[in-house]
Amino acid sequence: KKSQLSGVFKFMKKNYAKPNKQFYGKAKGKNVIVIHLESFQQFLIDKKVNGKEVTPFLNKLYHSQSTYAFDNFFNEVGQGKTSDAENMLETSTYGLPQGSLFSQLGSDNTFQAAPAILNQRAGYTSAVFHGNVASFWNRNNTYKNMGYQYFFDASYYDTSGDKSLGFGLKDKLLFNDSVKYLERLQQPFYVKYLTVTNHFPFSLDKEDMDPNFKAPDTGNKTVDNYFVTAHYLDQSLKEFYSYLYKTGLAKNTLVMLYGDHYGISNSENKYLAKELGKDPDDWTDFDNTQLQRVPLMFNMPGTKGGRISHEYGGEIDVLPTLLHLLGISTKQYIQFGTDLFSREHQPVVAFRNQDWITKKYTCLSGTLYDNHTGQEIQPDKKLKAKMDKIQDRVSEELHLSDSLNQKNLLRFYTPKGFKSVDARKYNYADGLL
Ligand code: GP9
Ligand code: MN
């Protein structure tokens, strides 16, 4: 049984990246607020439409001295979309080749996930705030197996009438109406806010629109509206931050923000081209891939020295990065990502379909592109050998992650000092307090 893990252990040994002293423990003991920016792509950052910034608040955070941000950070989700992003961030293992890991395996698998690790290693209380019903993506069951102590889903808020839209409670209300629960959590806490308003089809009620912000005219309504709901999400964050500052929570909190996956699909990207200063007729698969960048920011209000890193990485890398920032070692865990701040960080980004991207190259179904020119290249023998090596590593990594999850192998390995999660300990009460 445990021998099935030998390939995984071998990979972990060569994959492990030791923490960078400069960053290790920088956020030790702080509360952690994870903000999941639904469908939010990196190109929105610093973007102006009709002379106005789409996300002025996030832009300020992005450039702030108190933020470590990344501009070559990619989403790596598959068909499980939001749930794949969540799985990667909580466990540093990949989603499945087909479907959603949360839906397929979340009820029964053994996890060694962030909420349990943080609780056992550093006494963190954990909770998720989300304006949709708990059963969506099988979150209610998966979260219990991950060790989430509380899940404040739609049933905890008034979602009647125009308070909710599309996938649930509007973001401004989610932040506002969850505060009464947040305030009762024992500190330090590890909490996650899953926003929903910036989700396809990007509709918004008139009353929630900023009269000073005008959508672009791209020739595609979905694309136009994407900017409007992204602007609304930005405003909701500004309001939440003003709460964090007013209450003093800000100064002992690390806020981690990330985008889960694209909002604009490949087939709609050509409508974006002009907004991005490109010719829609020259749009290629290479360009689609470049748009898979999403934000990743670590904001510690009141601190200095932050900067924008150009390191290449993806969602798989977040957990070791976060744990090291909190001063929690990761060597004993099975994690496929590596700390983005580590000098040994692995800068190959693996997509779920085996495509990959590095600082220099993008490889899509075996076709190689030069990141600098965006042009296809015919590799010579030497480059071809290098490429094959990267491809082998990507395939091996995805394969090992899949076998780990599909065979539920973590049940055969309990890291030193880790106590298996007992899902029966948690009862989310479904709002019936
Ligand atoms: C729903 C939300 C959306 O609860 O998280 O999920 P997605 O469609 O983006 O996967
Ligand atoms: Mn999503």
UniProtKB/TrEMBL annotation:
Pathway stated in the Swiss-Prot or TrEMBL entry: Cell wall biogenesis; lipoteichoic acid biosynthesis
Residues the record lists as binding Mn(2+): 38, 82, 260-261
Swiss-Prot/TrEMBL keywords: Cell membrane, Manganese, Membrane, Metal-binding, Transferase, Transmembrane, Transmembrane helix
Keyword Manganese: yes
GO molecular function, one term: metal ion binding
Descriptive protein name: Phosphoglycerol transferase alkaline phosphatase superfamily protein
Compartments (UniProt record): Cell membrane
Family per similarity comment: Belongs to the LTA synthase family.
Membrane topology: Multi-pass membrane protein
GO cellular component, as recorded: plasma membrane
Portion of the parent chain present: 224 to 656 of 712
Record carries keyword Chaperone: no
Domain Sulfatase N-terminal: start-end pairs: 30-328
List of residues binding substrate: 199
Primary location recorded for the protein, binned into one broad class: membrane
Active site: 82
